[in-house]
């Protein structure tokens, strides 16, 4: 029989209705926002930026199908402050969160709150690290403080519980659960997915423990830097040779009790981290590490041999954590693709700051030198003409204005960043900033990096270390990209130094950061 069934009939009626209806403009569907941020992921270890160490096909996919920012920087290279800048679009002296020990005022204006008001569903999953609890989110599920790699605690909407599993997988699971079942699908979403990895102490997932075992990583050229002419660089405590702890950082947890360091507090914390594991995780961990611990005891390495052994161990563990991050980003991209969300979602991948992979002999971050001042940033905005590299100077103050403009929300005039949307759309960006401002405050504290502020332009960088010292540094990045030669007293550079000092002053006036006495 050739009769129409109910569905066909409904379809036909809808078709007729559409054809006869007066031509009303359909409300424009708002773009979703997925902001993925890792903790301490260096651009050196993303293959879209640098091929020397690791392949990261899923992060690269975002760049290949979108854009890669080649000059992306933070305003204060440390976790909490970087996150506060990202949320508020303001430098630390304006949002009040200057060091990891500060308390974030959650009553202040943030972009998630403004998106929420504009009808977005907002969520925050993973490392938050702002001491107060999240505000401005319909759903949040965070790790307390730094979080743990194994069987971490989570605080889900105020309720704390321990969850079995590996942090990078769990954070991804919770984010995907919210996308799939937690949100109101009639509304656009903004999801902040913040990984704990690859933060110290770089503990890989058990399935990745043997990855890259056969690889020896090249030592950075500046590994044995002597810090000549740079007092703050000399006085730091983030040296692989001196400060990286073999028990805590490099997991030489000797069951016979023969390996002890001069930091019993750290040794104990190292034991506590493996103490969180269940029997299966611990068995896999020990099966990998026990032979390495035996070898470490037998060889009794010292001097350069020990330094380079430490570097290799550090790199292996760090890169294994990155591999797991990349695999989990693949899961997220797959989910978006399978659910038709890739075509209406801005996907961002970045880190809270850069990180040292042994350059200057260091791990950690904090300094205004390139490896930690810069941060990776790739974005995939569907339907835009712009692909490839963006070379303009961008900074994490720009993220909030970008997301607001994308959502059609007016950018508040007190935000200090600029929207990157015109750039992402391939529009001409005239009068874009030609210089960057930076200010770091966490001293005295772990790693002993002195307080400093500074500016960089296309070619030069000026830094003023202050508080317990008063020293200036000046670098010609074209001739000295590794920032080994402080030219502040070189008469040949007098004009360039004067000019960048003036520019620094202009930036401090523009951003209203002239009074260094306001923070104690
Ligand atoms: C912890 C780390 C430090 C690290 C800070 C800040 N020590 O204190 O090595 O510099 O975090 O990192 S640890 O023993 O706890 O691992 S940040 O990325 O959170 O700012
Ligand atoms: Ca960090």
Verbal overview:
This protein has 520 residues and is α/β, with parallel strands linked by helices. The chain is built from 14 helices and 16 strands. Helix 6 (167-182) packs parallel to helix 10. The radius of gyration is 25 Å and the shape is globular. The N and C termini lie far apart (85 Å). Calcium ion binds at residues 39-40, 79, 199, 352-353.
**Distance linking N and C termini:** 85 Å
The distinct ligands, each listed once, are: 2-deoxy-6-O-sulfo-2-(sulfoamino)-alpha-D-glucopyranose, calcium ion
For the largest beta sheet, what order do the strands appear in spatially? Answer: 7-6-5-4-8-1-9-10-2-11
Helix content: 25-40%
Mean pLDDT: 95
Approximate strand percentage:
15-25%
Keywords:
15% strand; four-stranded antiparallel beta sheet; binds calcium ion; 14 helices
Blueprint of the fold:
Layout: H1 6-20, E1 32-38, H2 57-64, E2 67-69, E3 72-73, H3 79-88, H4 92-95, H5 111-117, E4 121-127, E5 139-143, E6 153-156, E7 159-162, H6 167-182, E8 189-194, H7 231-235, H8 264-275, H9 279-299, H10 303-338, E9 345-351, H11 370-373, E10 377-380, E11 388-390, E12 394-395, H12 399-406, H13 421-424, E13 435-440, E14 452-457, E15 460-465, E16 471-476, H14 494-510
Parallel strand pairs: 1-8, 1-9, 2-11, 3-12, 4-5, 4-8
Antiparallel strand pairs: 2-10, 5-6, 6-7, 9-10, 13-14, 14-15, 15-16
Helix pairs in contact: 6-10
Bound molecules: 2-deoxy-6-O-sulfo-2-(sulfoamino)-alpha-D-glucopyranose and calcium ion.
Calcium ion (CA) binds next to loops.
């Amino acid at each position: 029989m050739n009769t129409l069934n109910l569905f066909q009939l409904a379809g036909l009626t809808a078709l007729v209705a559409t054809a006869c209806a007066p031509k009303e403009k359909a409300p424009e569907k708002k773009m979703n926002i997925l902001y993925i941020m890792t903790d301490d992921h260096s651009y050196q270890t993303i293959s879209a930026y640098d091929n020397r160490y690791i392949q990261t096909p899923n992060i690269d996919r975002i760049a290949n199908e979108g854009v890669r920012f080649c000059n992306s920087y933070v305003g204060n290279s440390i976790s909490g402050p970087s996150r506060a800048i990202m949320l508020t679009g303001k430098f630390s002296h304006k949002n009040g969160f200057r060091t990891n020990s500060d308390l974030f005022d959650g009553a202040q204006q943030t972009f998630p709150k403004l998106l929420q008001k504009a009808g977005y569903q907002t969520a925050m999953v993973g490392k938050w690290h702002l001491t107060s609890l999240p505000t401005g989110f319909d759903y949040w599920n965070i790790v307390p403080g730094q979080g743990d790699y194994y069987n971490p605690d989570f605080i889900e909407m105020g309720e704390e519980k321990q969850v079995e599993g590996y942090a990078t997988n769990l954070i991804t699971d919770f984010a995907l659960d919210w996308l799939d079942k937690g949100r109101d699908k009639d509304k656009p979403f903004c999801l902040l997915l913040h990984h704990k990895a690859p933060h110290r102490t770089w503990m890989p997932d058990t399935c990745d423990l043997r990855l890259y075992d056969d690889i020896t990583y090249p030592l950075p050229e500046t590994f044995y830097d002597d810090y000549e002419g740079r007092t703050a660089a000399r006085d730091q405590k983030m040296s692989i040779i001196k400060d990286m702890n073999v028990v805590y950082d490099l997991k030489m947890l000797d069951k016979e009790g023969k390996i002890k360091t001069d930091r019993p507090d750290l040794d104990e914390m190292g034991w506590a981290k493996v103490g969180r594991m269940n029997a299966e995780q611990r068995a896999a961990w020990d099966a990998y590490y026990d032979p390495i611990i035996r070898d470490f005891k037998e060889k009794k390495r010292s001097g350069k041999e020990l330094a380079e052994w430490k570097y290799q161990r550090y790199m292996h563990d760090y890169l294994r954590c990155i591999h797991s991050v990349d695999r989990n980003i693949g899961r997220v991209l797959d989910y978006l693709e399978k659910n038709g969300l890739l075509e209406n979602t801005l996907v961002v991948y970045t880190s809270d700051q850069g990180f040292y992979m042994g350059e200057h002999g260091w791990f950690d971050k904090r300094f205004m030198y390139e490896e930690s001042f810069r941060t990776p940033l790739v974005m995939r905005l569907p339907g835009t003409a712009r692909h490839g590299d963006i070379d303009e100077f961008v900074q994490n103050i720009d993220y909030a204005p970008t997301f607001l403009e994308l959502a059609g929300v007016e950018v508040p005039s007190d935000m200090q960043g600029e929207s990157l949307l015109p750039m992402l759309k391939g529009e001409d960006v005239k009068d874009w900033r030609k210089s960057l401002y930076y200010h770091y405050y966490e001293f005295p504290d772990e790693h002993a990096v002195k307080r400093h502020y500074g500016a960089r332009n296309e070619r030069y960088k000026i830094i003023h270390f202050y508080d317990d010292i008063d020293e200036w540094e000046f670098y010609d990045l074209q001739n000295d990209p590794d920032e080994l030669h402080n030219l502040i007293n070189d008469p040949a550079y007098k004009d360039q130094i004067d000019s960048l000092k003036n520019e620094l002053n202009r930036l401090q006036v523009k951003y209203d950061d002239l009074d260094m006495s306001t923070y104690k």
